[in-house]
Amino acid sequence: MQWTLEQLRQFVLTADSGSFSEAARRLGRAQSAVSTAIGILEADLGLELFDRSRRNAQPTDAGALLLLEARELLRQAQSLDQRALSLSAGNEARLALALDEALPYSAVNTLVREIGERYPDLELTLLNGTATEVAEYVEQQRAQMAIHFVRGPISARFDQRHIGTVAQGLFAPGGHALTQCHPVQRTDLARFRQLILHADDIDETAFSPKVWRSDSFYSLAQMVADDLGWAILPVHIATEESYRQPLQQLDCPALGLPRLSVRVLWCQGWQPGATAQWVLARFTQLLR
Predict the structure, then answer these.
(1) Whole-structure pTM value
(2) Quick one: how far is CA 40 from the chain centroid?
(3) How many other C-beta atoms can be found within 10 angstroms of the C-beta atom of residue 156?
(4) Check: CATH 3.40.50.261 for 168-258?
(5) Over residues 24-48, mean pLDDT
């Protein structure tokens, strides 16, 4: 069989428009040229695609079945064209991102949705984990780059770029004794258990002699909601509505809590392509 994509396009357009003359008008060709092209296609396939005994161009039963196949082939051809154009423009064919599970969900959700809209042919892999885990995914070459909260220095094998900050605060469960302190003093904090983020043997500063540790901000927030202590948490995590009881932010000027820094890292020698560069620029905007 020697049929071409152009013959399939004329076949589909004729079926959609309901007549050879209308298909020819849309293509800017003579009706005889379209009729001849479809006649050659029918001869090549060994089937009549249209019932010519009717006034309008109605597909035969066989033509209706092949019309489905023709549409799919044209869709695949268009996808091939789009992917080739994307690759020739310097975009990656595949991108694997490792994302800190504690990053603002709204920013991550918006980023992923916009990647799908902007790069429909990209093969995207998303890996989630703690700040330590996502760095390991890059080191293991499971991901090309990771976006996570800064947790101390990184290995010399990585390059990094700081892309934004996220607010953090001091939180206790509603009704906790600390909520009655206005403002909270460091001596007040020392009276109650502190829940501390712990990863890579790096702890937050302890302001209480009694501490529990976890490698997940979400785990810490849940423990605060269960009245197990107080914690320093990203504000967007602490203010979610999924906890057993609301978490209350405390005013403690003496701590002078800075904003949490967010960075992206990748293995030395890897050069972000056009898609990866757009992802970094867009996520930087979203964090603002």
Answers:
(1) 0.66
(2) 47
(3) 7
(4) no
(5) 89
